[in-house]
Specification:
Elements (H helix, E strand, L loop, with lengths): L1 E5 L3 H13 L3 E5 L2 H10 L4 E5 L1 E2 L2 E2 H9 L13 E6 L3 H9 L4 E5 L3 H16 L6 E3 L2 E4 L4 E4 L2 E3 L3 H13 L6 H8 L10 H13 L5 E3 L3 E3 L6
Parallel strand pairs: 1-2, 1-3, 3-6, 6-7
Antiparallel strand pairs: 4-5, 8-9, 9-10, 10-11, 12-13
The structure holds calcium ion (CA).
């Protein structure tokens, strides 16, 4: 999943990149409101982590602008936003939530708590309450990063897991190769031209050919149960 971090503190940004990157989130970081807005216009992010005190103004300004953006183009005004605030910024936290932030954390925070809140926001954005995704006998647990089919554990690489999760969350919609790539790779990554095909090939080998369907020239999808 693609995450935009708007944070001017290098130490905090590096900590987020290390801990969340290791859990398979593709993070891009900017350090100002202006760069944050430019990034949101250029890329479809699944989630925004927003610092409130930025060199060119208040994080709330970006949030207000995002929530006020027209639907149907970038940036998506529905993009979930978690604000990161200092402990004494109670008033800004309240203001942030009222401006449309979905959640907040006070610094310093536990990276595991942040990751859990991010998973919760992602569930909510996908319109589901259950933490484990079930498709027939296929069970995927984003918190444990585990997958089983018919009760048997299936070992997936971090990228394979990310491709599967993106397809399951989009199901039954079709995701294009470019849309899948955008969820897997941040700006700093170099992408092999056939990377998504290779991951899908491996997923089919491990989960069965019918788990992921191809729409020729368009992309891939996971059919809903019984479809
Ligand atoms: Ca700051």
């Amino acid at each position: 999943m693609r995450v935009l971090v708007v944070e001017d503190d290098d130490g905090i940004a590096a900590g987020l990149a290390a801990t969340l990157g290791a859990q398979g989130w593709a993070l891009d970081r900017v350090a100002s409101l202006a760069a944050g807005w430019a990034a949101l216009q250029a890329e479809a992010f699944d989630l925004v982590l927003l610092d409130l005190g930025l060199p060119d103004g208040e994080g709330g300004t970006l949030l207000r602008r995002l929530r006020g953006a027209p639907s149907g183009r970038m940036p998506d005004p529905q993009t979930p936003v978690l604000i990161m605030t200092a402990r004494d910024e109670v008033a800004s936290r309240i203001a942030g939530l009222d401006l449309g932030a979905d959640d907040y954390l006070t610094k310093p925070f536990d990276p595991d708590e942040l990751a859990a809140r991010m998973r919760a926001l992602r569930r909510r954005a996908a319109g589901r309450a259950q933490p484990v995704l079930a498709f027939g006998d296929l069970l995927v647990d984003p918190a444990a990063r585990s997958v089983s089919r018919g009760g048997q554990p299936v070992e997936l690489s971090a990228r394979e897991f990310a491709v599967l999760l993106a397809l399951l969350e989009a199901s039954p919609r079709v995701l294009s190769r470019a849309q899948i790539e955008a969820k897997l790779y941040n700006w700093a990554s170099s992408i092999e031209s056939n990377a998504v095909e290779v991951h899908v090939h491996h997923l089919r080998r491990k989960l069965g050919d019918s788990a992921i369907r191809t729409v020729r020239g368009v992309g891939y999808f996971v059919p809903q149960e019984g479809a």
